[in-house]
Amino acid sequence: MVTLNIQSLTAGYGPTTIIAGASACARPGGLTVLIGPNGTGKSTFLKAIAGLIPATGSIALCGLEIPQRQRSKTVSYMPQDVGGASSLTVLEVVLLGRLRSLGLSVPAHLPTEALALLNRFGIGHLESRSLDALSGGQKQLVFLAQALFRDPDVLLLDEPTAALDLRHQLVVLNAVRDHARERGVVAIAAMHDLSLAAQFAQEIICLSGGTVVASGPAGDVLTEERLRDVYGVEASVARTHAGFLSITPLRPCA
Fold first, then answer.
1. 225 Cβ partners below 8 Å, 6+ apart?
2. Torsion angle, CA of 188/216/218/201, rounded to 10 degrees?
3. H helices then E strands: how many in the chain?
4. Which domain of life does the UniProt lineage start with (predicted)?
5. Domain spanning 1-74+152-222: which superfamily?
6. Domain ranges for the chain
C-alpha cells in the first residue's frame, strides 16, 4: 500500500514559520480531507508535501523517504488559485499533465484518455475551447482533470470545490474518491465545507495553530468540543437520514 507518512513537518515563508512539527498519515484508496480555520496553514502544508517550498521533516511513501527534488515525479498538486491566461485549448491543458512523457508527437491513446476525464467532470464538450474563454469554475475542473491525468501516487488538492456549484462539488468529490480507489492513490484535499468533508472523507486531518491536532474518521474528529476549540464556534453535529454527519454552526464562542 502506498501510504504517505508525514513526520515533524516544519515549513513557512522567510523567517515566518507556518507549519510547526506536524505529523500525519494518509492511506491510499480514498479521500483524506484536510480541515482547519483560515490562516492555519492548510495550503502551506500541501505545498510542503509537494516539495514546492523549503521544509524540514520527513515525507515518505511505503516507508521510503522522498527527497524534495524528486517529489514532482510522484506528487500532483492543484493550487487553490488556478487563474491565469492561456490560449491553449482545454484538451491541451489536460495533456500537459503528461508533459514528461510527451515527445515530438502525442500518442493516439492520450487524447482519448484525457477526453474521458473531461467527460467524467461533465466538460468534455469544452475540449476545443480556449482556456481563456472559461469561467472560474470550469477552469477549476480542467486543472483538476490535469492533476488526475498525471496519474500520480499522491494527489494534493487545495480547495478543489471552492468555485463550484452544488452539483459539480459532488461530481468532483465522487470522481476524486473513485480515482483514488481505482488507482490506489493517496488523495488529500483541503476543504472548508465540513459537512461535505464528512460525507466523502475516509479520514480527516485537522490543523490548528500550524500543527495536526486530530486525525481519524469524521465521527472522531468532527465533535462539537473540537469545533469549539479549533474554530471558536458553537456548532451542532448530527447524523442525517442518509447516515452522514451534518455540521451546523450556531454562533461564535463568547
1. none
2. 30
3. 8, 12
4. Bacteria
5. P-loop containing nucleotide triphosphate hydrolases (3.40.50.300)
6. 1-74+152-222, 83-151
Q: DSSP assignment, residue 178?
A: H
**φ, ψ at 65 (rounded to 5°):** -70, 140
Exposed (0-12), middle (13-18) or buried (19+): which is 252, by Cβ within 10 Å? exposed
Q: Which residues, at least 6 apart from 191, have a Cβ–Cβ distance to it below 8 Å? A: 33, 34, 35, 159, 160, 161, 197
Cell of 146: 490535469
By residue count, the chain amounts to 254
pLDDT digits (tens, 9 = 90+) for 107-157: 778 889 999 999 999 999 999 999 999 998 899 999 999 999 998 999 999
3-state SS, residue 81:
coil
